[in-house]
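Handout, section B. The chain below has 141 residues.
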Amino acid sequence: MRQWSNLFAIILLLFFSGYSHFYNLSKPPFSIYDEARLATSAYEMTQTGNLIVTTLGYNPDLIGTKPPLMIWAQAACIRWFGINEFAVRLPAALCALLTIFLVFLFVLRVTGSSWSALLSGIVLCTAHSYLFDHGTRPGRI
């Protein structure tokens, strides 16, 4: 019985997190600052093949000093799906999905209750600050 409740909770969490992070992923258009800078760096990385130095305007990006893991993932998605909002935001949405499931598994292990684990995952995937502004939907984790 416990396995069925865990499976049901995982399916519900997959539905909620999938809807909140993947529905209309390509809307709205890129925001002017961070998201567009990362998308530009990822696009330039696909054009030049330079995987070490992130660029902006084909010059080294001296403002964006974060490690380039997100830019690498976005560059790979741009290569697979073309340059569009979906390709730029997909890596952040996948990382958000992974984070939600890690929270679910952590709460499940600590409490032993699949319903409290489900509730914690749903709260995280519906939190406005986690989704929007500088969160997971704009693709700039």
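Note. The longest strand covers residues 55-56. Compare this with the example in section A.
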